[in-house]
Amino acid sequence: MYLQKAIMASVFIAGLGFVNANAQAKHEDTEFYTPVPIKVTPGKTFADAPSDAIVLFNGKNLDQWVMTDDRTQPAKWIVSDNILTVDKKTGNIETKQSFGNYQLHVEWRVPQNITGEGQARGNSGVFLASMGKGDAGYELQVLDNYENKTYTNGMAGSIYKQTTPLVNPSRKQGEWQTYDVIWTAPTFKADSSLNTPAKVTVFFNGVLVQNNFILKGPTQYVGTPSYTKAHGPLPVKLQAHGDKSQPVSFRNIWIRELPSTN
Questions:
Q1: DSSP state for residue 3 in the 8-state scheme
Q2: Those residues with Cβ within 8 angstroms of residue 82's Cβ, 6 or more apart along the chain or in another chain
Q3: What is the pLDDT of residues 137-150, one digit of tens each?
Q4: Is 30 helix (H, G, I), strand (E, B) or coil?
Q5: What DSSP string runs through 48-94?
Q6: Vertex 79: Cα angle to 258 and 117 (nearest 5)
Q7: Per-residue pLDDT tens for 156-194?
Q8: CB-based contact 247:191 (threshold 8 Å)
Q9: Would the pTM of this model clear 0.85, i.e. be above it?
């Protein structure tokens, strides 16, 4: 009983101290004036690149891209009428520049007369961090899922084979779709073991489908993903998937580098 009274008395005294401190505080004590945020001019619409963005595809050329399997080669996909279309014969493409944490905007479209079903229906992917040749990296799936069933952790808006999107806001075939992504890159310790895992938030056509999801590692088609290889900033990759359906197109791709939060 004595101990309980002593604790209650201590709490009461501490509470009085807190009240007295607040009574003497000024509003200026909790106001920050530095650092001053850098002025950024937003785009005219939500989809337009803000003034501090790096424009990765402006509808004119692929100057910001190279072939994934041979980074000495310029990207060889098709650019026409301000649209970038996958050329499946050439393979994946990725950015010349590598990125850590970022905000990414990508618009994509499957053909209106798309054929096939399941994974063979407008299959592509945005690899949020490319780990080189083939499909190595962390994939945000691109697929026609307006009225097309497949495994749910392989549909549009999923982090491939890791998580299902919260909802399915897919538009009809032939209509432009939008991904807005916040990517937090994984970090690694000096011994190459994982320090902090990758995280991603994705808005699909303006609808939240991934809410700060923690990735288990790079994409695995077979098996359980894990962080087996330490890395720093990496390119963003677009996939030339080998299905037989008509190829996917992209437009209006831009990225904003973000400071490290780890």
A1: H
A2: 59, 60, 251
A3: 999 999 999 989 99
A4: helix
A5: SPPTT-EEEE-SS--TTEEESS-TTSBP--EEETTEEE--TTT--EE
A6: 85
A7: 999 999 999 999 999 999 999 999 999 999 999 999 999
A8: no
A9: yes
| Residues whose CB falls within 8 Å of the CB of residue 192, separated by 6 or more in sequence, listed in order | 229, 230
Question: And the tokens for 66?
Answer: 């190279």
What tokens does 89 get?
Answer: 């014969």
- Chain position carrying tokens 């962390």: 138
User: Residue holding tokens 């549009």?
Assistant: 156
CB 135 within 8 A of CB 72: no
Q: What angle do CA 226, 227, 232 make, to 5 degrees?
A: 150
Q: Find, among 173, 181, 243, 180, the residue nearest to 215 by Cα.
A: 181
214 alpha-carbon distance from chain centroid: 12
Superfamily of domain 54-257: Exo-inulinase; domain 1 (2.60.120.560)
Q: DSSP for 217-228?
A: SS--SSS-----
Alpha-carbon distance of 168 to 157, in angstroms, equals 8
The pair of structure tokens assigned to 30 is 């909790």
